[in-house]
Structures are given as C-alpha cells and as structure tokens.
Amino acid sequence: MASGEAPHIESYASGRAVIDGQLHTRDVIILPDRVLGGWWRKAGHALSPEDLEAVFEAAPEVLVVGQGAYGMMQVTAETRQALQAAGIELIAQRSDQACETYNALREERSVAAALHLAC
C-alpha cells in the first residue's frame, strides 16, 4: 500500500479476501490507513457497537459493512444509532457488493469496511 493510499480489496470469494496482496480467511476490518485481520464479533451474526471500536476511533465518513456471502450478518438497531450519532454513514450489503462499494469509494472519501467473509 502506498503512503496515504487506502487499502484496496483485490478479490473476494466466500470465505476469503485478498487485500493489498494479503490473503484473509477470517473476517476483517479495513480502516482508511490499515487492515485489521482476524476480526470477530461479540455475537457471531449480529454487529454491535462494541465490535466496531476501531472504526469509531478512526472516524471515517462511511462504513461499508459486508454482511456475508448470503447476507447473514445483521447490523443491530443499536449499531445503526451509534454510527449515526458518530456521523458515520452506513452502507450494509452482501460482502461481494460491499467490496465493490468500498473500492469505488476509497479514492474519493474516508471509508472503512467491516467484512464478514463467510455466510
């Protein structure tokens, strides 16, 4: 990754993503300046505010949530409210779509992604 350049998702398939040449087979958070691999949530298929501490600290304009290959991970109402209160726009999509959305936004806005790679 070049200095000052947001991470780039090179490819995604159910259960795996390649980000800046690095293969990830566990869920991942992408911040505007770095990648946090091996991310896990308090409750497997529910995204809570506690799961996104690094995102809140980074304070991006947008958070793209990849809900899994089949959209199984849900963003709780509490998380939606916390993101709104922090002024972070939320985009929640199946992970394949979320990867495309993240890549499209990364050059024009401060964006983070929280990707559930499997189901």
Describe this structure in words.
This protein has 119 residues and is α/β, with parallel strands linked by helices. The chain has a single domain, classed as Hypothetical Protein Mth938, Chain: A. Helix content is 22%, strand content 31%. The protein is globular and about 35 Å long. The mean pLDDT is 95.
The backbone outline, from C-alpha atoms, is globular
CATH class: Alpha Beta
The residue ranges in which pLDDT falls below 50 over 5 or more consecutive positions are none
Question: Cα distance, first to last residue?
Answer: 28 Å
| Total beta-strand segments | 10
Give the full name of the CATH homologous superfamily.
MTH938-like
Considering the chains and any ligands shown, give keywords for the structure.
three-stranded antiparallel sheet; Hypothetical Protein Mth938, Chain: A; 3 helices; five-stranded mixed sheet; alpha/beta; globular; 119 residues
Secondary structure layout plus pairing:
Blueprint: E1 9-13, E2 16-19, E3 22-24, E4 28-30, E5 35-37, E6 46-47, H1 53-58, E7 62-66, E8 74-75, H2 77-85, E9 89-93, H3 95-105, E10 111-115
Parallel strand pairs: 6-8, 7-9, 7-10
Antiparallel strand pairs: 1-2, 2-3, 4-5, 4-10
